[in-house]
Amino acid sequence: MSRVRGNKYSLIGEAIYEKDWENIALTVGVRHNQQWMENTYLGSASATVNMTTAETYAFAEVQQRVKQFSYAVGIGAMHTYIEQAGQKQSNWIARPQLTLSYDFGKGVFWKYKGYVSGYQPSLSAMSDVAQQIDKYQIRQGNPNLKPVMFVANEMQLSWQSKYVNLNIWANYSYDHKPIMDETYEQLIDGQAYAIRTYANHRGFHRLQVAPSVQVRLLQNKLIFTVAPFANYYVSIGNSYTHKHFNPGVRASIMGMYKGWQFFGEVTTCSNNLWGETLEYGEFYHHIGLGYNADLRGPQRAGSHGVSGWGFRAMLMNPFSVKGYSIETKDLSALAPSGRVAVMSDYRQVLLLNFHVNLDFGIQHRESGKRINNEDKETGILSGTK
Hints:
The protein is an all-beta fold. It has one helix spanning 123-126; strands at residues 2-20, 24-43, 47-66, 69-84, 87-94, 97-105, 108-119, 130-132, 137-140, 148-160, 164-176, 179-188, 191-200, 203-217, 222-236, 241-257, 260-267, 272-274, 277-280, 284-294, 305-316, 324-330, 337-343, 349-359. The mean pLDDT is 86.
């Protein structure tokens, strides 16, 4: 049992320059993220962790459209820096990117996107400290973790007609030397402990395929969608290999009539494997009813004031008997474990939403950020399994 007291500061900045010509667009940007952390662990784990990390990313991208064909080519580089307890490491990762798309006409469209990226270890995983989980297990950080290179390929092929949409999406990604969990045995004062820590392992493969069929009837007032999916994961550790295949389906219905909306959706379990941790998703479904009133109309398009209102009522898991549960398994050969979190009251939950649209004054067009400069990580090493 321990308590943690500390401070963490972040400095995040970005700059982007864009230039458009007749059919070519150029984007150049740079982003820097620096973090300073000091955590003091009190209790069973008595230690102070001081760490400085920095990540700088610079890129340039060219986009062009030539008739039905368009492309985007980007080049970039990421530099990472980590300093802890006098140990320093500096790494470079190249980050090229390629996007291709082609409109074949008659509703047929194809798109491909491939890129190389990277990410740093989390502050908590790198913390040079150990937390005792129970009398047999210890959670320990690893200050020797290295940044990870990530390669992704994504493709989409679609066909759209008056009544039917067909779409198939596929993604293959590979993490080179990913940071995943590792468990080994160690004797401490004559007592054998299972040490749960993190390490750069050999690789992680992820293959996802998701076709979908959408049928639109009654002038798009009644829409049915069925989208099966299949996820295949291969986690290749330094001393283990785990595979997991997860098929499933999502199905939904949407009906609209004079501002009224009826909707429902069913989603089967979507599981996730990472390292030696397998998380099982949950069967989820909901039904709902809503109404939207547009008060402006053609004759009042330029007016100000209340332009519309509406409400939505949604019943989550209306046919659930056991409630909501999340199951997690640790597949370690040395210390396998499992846990189930059950929320028996999380069924037949009614959500109500009411909204009013107010239209006053002068409206301005706002440009969105290209990069999300947000930092939520505390850097605290967990004392749980």
